[in-house]
Amino acid sequence: MCCILAALGLIGPRMAFAVWWVLDRSKVVSALGGDWWVALLGLIFLPWTALAWVAVWSPSTHVSGFGWALVGVGFLADLSSLGSGKVSRAKDKDRA
Question: Does residue 86 carry a pLDDT above 70?
Answer without folding.
Answer: no
